[in-house]
Each structure stands twice: as structure tokens, then as C-alpha cells.
């Protein structure tokens, strides 16, 4: 039996929306436990760090350009946390290194 | 009605939350465009029309989720398989949703239902950067630029495919990672424990991609398990002080946070 693309979409969309909407609507009160609060406080930093590294190294055409983008973004983020500047600088670093013979 | 109070307070603070959201959402939009583009190319290979691909992008707003969706369609898997694949691949959104619930004290249900539809890694990152409570209008501002970038990139990827030079797509592709770094690194400057947590997380993540056996686990599984373990250890070793906790609870601090630049 041929499956319907739109039913696939719907099923997938419902699954993702359940994950996203249930905690945020069910947890209405501030969490009192110090451990849980600390845990949730650290979750963003941990999960974003894990997503960045090492995936950033293979996000471009070569390891070298990925590394250059990683370093450029880290340095600019340290000096000036502006999102747009950091994003643009990492893109430029990748583009320049990929023009080089090693890239 | 704490929420209404926070809206008026933020309006009097000068910058309008919606406009700030639009501005901060722009780099996300550019990065989304590039990632969407690559998904669009993959979707076209499966024979989906640009319209279907755009619909998928708007329904999902999730790159890993969309790649998983395409692979299930490609193998003509059952609807049940689709459902469970999506639950597993996108499980990290549960943690993000829990975390955001603490920044929405007193926010009515309608905002919770609407806002959570657009929880993505990047928009979540923006939201946690906001000091104090999250103003839903700020979030919607960011969504208004980021979401069209995502959908347009995906549709264009499916339409024109390989017209853009690969080097340009490749360069844009790193933008989202750059943004993640722009979110976590400034926090490392102000808190030594966060600095160590970032280093430990990256080291553990790197290790898990090279160690035998462990490296075969999917990246989604790795993200979930490492996030749970490292956050728990961090919470145990360096529990936040009451004032830090309050800092993430208190309403409203609309001075723009780290992203306030020119």
C-alpha cells in the first residue's frame, strides 16, 4: 500500500508538537527543588555545547574551514557577544579558508 | 496578570520587544536559509514538490526531524514508525520546553501553545539569553524572521537545487553553529562554572564521536544522554545560588542582554 505524504507530514508534526508543547503547558509553577533548578539552568549550555562540537568541524566542505569557522566564532563571541557579528565572522572565515589551497 | 505587567514595563524601558526579536532573529534566518536549502535538495531527490517541501518546513521547524522524516518517507515506513522516529529524534525539545516553562511564569496558555510550536535549537538559545522572564512578543519577533528563512530556504533548495555555488552554501552552513557559540561563550566569561561545563560538554561530545562502539550511537541519542548526565553532574557539583535562580525567574529585565550591540 502506498503511503500518503500528507499523512506522513501530519503524524510527524503531531509528534514534534507534543514534545514541544507538553512540558511548557504542564509546568506552570516555579520548580522549588534546588537540584532541578540548577539542572534546568545548565541544560541550555550543555546541550548547545554538545551540538556545536564536534559537528561544527564537519559542517563545511573541509575540516580546516570548519576549524577556522569554529575559532573565528569563538574569538569574536568572547570579545563581543553580538549574534550577527559572530555568525558573519564565522561565515567569512569559512569562505576565505575554502578559497585557500588547503581548504 | 504578571504578564501584562511585564509588557508595560518593557515598553517603558525603550526598546520594543517585538522589534528586538526581529533584529535578533535575522542571523538565525540566514543560517536557517542555508540549512533549509540542503534539506530542500534532499527532499527534491525523493520526488517531493516545492509546495510539499515548504509545507513540511512550516510543520516541522526541525532539521534533524525533517531529515528523519525524509528517510522514513524514502523507505515507505509505517505511520507508527514515523511517529516514534520523530519522538526519538526530537526528544531534546522536551528539555528545552521544561527549561522555557521556568521563564514564562504567569504567561497565559495561548502564548504557551503558540510559542512552543516554534521551539527550535536556535530560538531557544535566543530565549535563554534573555534576562529574567521571557516576553512572548520578543519570541514572536524572532519567529517572524527566522521561520520564513527556514521555509524559503527549503523551498528554494527543492526548486533550484544546485544553482548556488557549493562554497557559498557551505559558508552559510556554519552560521548556526557560530550563533550557538555567541550564546554560550559570553556566559562563560561571567561564570567560571559555566566555562568548565562548556569545555567538559564539548570534550565529552568529541570523545563520544571517536570512542569505539559509542561512536556508532546516533547524534540525537548522544545529545540527550550527555545533556542529562552532564547537567545533572553540574547541578550536583555546583548548584546555583538562590540569587542566580531568582535572576532567571524575576520579571522583567529588558535591557537587551548580551546581544545588545550595534
Task: Explain how this protein is built.
The complex is a heterodimer of chains A (103) and B (262). Chain A has 103 residues and is mostly helical. Chain A contains four helices and no strands. In chain A, helix 3 runs antiparallel to helix 4. The model of chain A has no long low-confidence stretch (mean pLDDT 88). Chain B is an all-alpha fold and 262 residues long. Chain B has a domain at 2-181. At the A-B interface, helix 1, helix 2, helix 3 and helix 4 of A face helix 2, helix 3, helix 4, helix 5 and helix 6 of B.
Key words describing this protein structure:
heterodimer; A: 103 residues; mainly alpha; 0% strand; flat; B: 262 residues
Task: Offer a quick outline of the entry.
The complex is a heterodimer of chains A (103) and B (262). Chain A is mainly alpha-helical.
Tertiary shape of chain A = flat
- Largest interface, chains and sizes: A-B, 81 and 106 residues
Quaternary structure annotation: heterodimer
SS element count, helices of chain A: 4
Topology summary:
The complex is a heterodimer of chains A (103) and B (262).
Chain A: H1 5-26, H2 34-52, H3 63-79, H4 83-99
Helix pairs in contact in A: 3-4
Chain B: H1 2-12, H2 17-45, H3 50-60, H4 63-74, H5 79-89, H6 92-101, H7 109-117, H8 121-129, H9 136-160, H10 166-173, H11 175-190, H12 192-208, H13 219-237, H14 242-247
Amino acid at each position: 500500500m502506498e503511503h500518503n505524504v500528507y499523512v506522513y507530514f501530519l503524524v510527524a508534526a503531531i509528534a514534534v508538537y507534543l514534545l514541544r508543547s507538553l512540558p511548557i503547558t504542564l509546568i506552570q509553577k516555579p520548580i522549588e527543588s534546588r537540584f532541578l533548578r540548577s539542572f534546568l539552568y545548565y541544560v541550555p549550555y550543555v546541550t548547545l555545547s554538545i551540538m556545536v562540537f564536534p559537528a561544527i568541524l564537519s559542517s563545511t566542505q573541509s575540516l580546516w574551514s570548519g576549524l577556522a569557522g569554529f575559532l573565528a566564532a569563538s574569538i569574536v563571541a568572547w570579545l563581543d557577544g553580538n549574534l550577527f557579528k559572530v555568525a558573519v565572522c564565522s561565515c567569512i572565515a569559512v569562505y576565505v579558508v575554502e578559497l585557500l589551497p588547503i581548504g | 496578570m504578571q504578564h501584562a505587567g511585564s509588557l508595560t514595563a518593557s515598553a517603558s524601558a525603550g526598546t520594543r520587544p517585538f522589534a528586538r526579536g526581529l533584529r535578533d532573529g535575522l542571523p538565525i534566518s540566514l543560517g536557517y536559509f542555508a540549512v533549509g536549502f540542503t534539506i530542500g535538495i534532499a527532499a527534491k531527490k525523493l520526488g517531493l514538490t516545492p509546495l510539499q517541501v515548504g509545507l513540511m518546513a512550516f510543520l516541522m521547524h526541525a532539521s534533524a526531524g525533517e531529515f528523519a522524516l525524509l528517510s522514513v518517507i524514502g523507505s515507505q515506513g509505517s505511520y507508527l514508525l514515523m511517529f516514534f522516529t520523530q519522538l526519538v529524534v526530537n526528544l531534546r525539545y522536551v528539555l528545552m520546553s521544561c527549561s522555557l516553562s521556568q521563564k514564562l511564569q504567569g504567561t497565559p496558555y495561548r502564548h504557551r501553545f503558540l510559542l512552543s510550536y516554534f521551539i527550535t535549537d536556535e530560538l531557544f538559545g535566543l530565549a535563554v539569553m534573555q534576562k529574567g522572564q521571557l516576553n512572548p512578543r520578543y519570541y514572536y519577533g524572532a519567529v517572524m524572521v527566522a521561520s520564513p528563512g527556514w521555509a524559503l530556504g527549503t523551498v528554494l533548495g527543492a526548486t533550484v537545487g544546485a544553482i548556488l555555488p557549493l562554497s557559498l552554501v557551505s559558508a552559510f552552513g556554519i552560521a548556526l553553529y557560530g550563533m550557538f557559540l555567541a550564546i554560550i561563550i559570553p556566559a562563560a566569561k561571567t561564570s567560571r562554572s559555566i566555562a568548565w561545563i562548556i569545555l567538559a560538554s564539548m570534550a565529552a561530545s568529541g570523545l563520544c564521536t571517536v570512542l569505539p562502539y559509542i561512536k556508532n550511537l546516533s547524534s540525537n541519542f548522544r545529545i540527550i544522554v550527555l545533556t542529562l548526565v552532564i547537567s545533572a553532574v553540574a547541578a550536583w557539583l555546583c548548584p546555583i545560588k538562590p540569587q542566580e535562580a531568582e535572576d532567571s525567574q524575576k520579571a522583567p529585565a529588558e535591557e537587551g542582554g548580551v546581544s545588545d550591540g550595534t
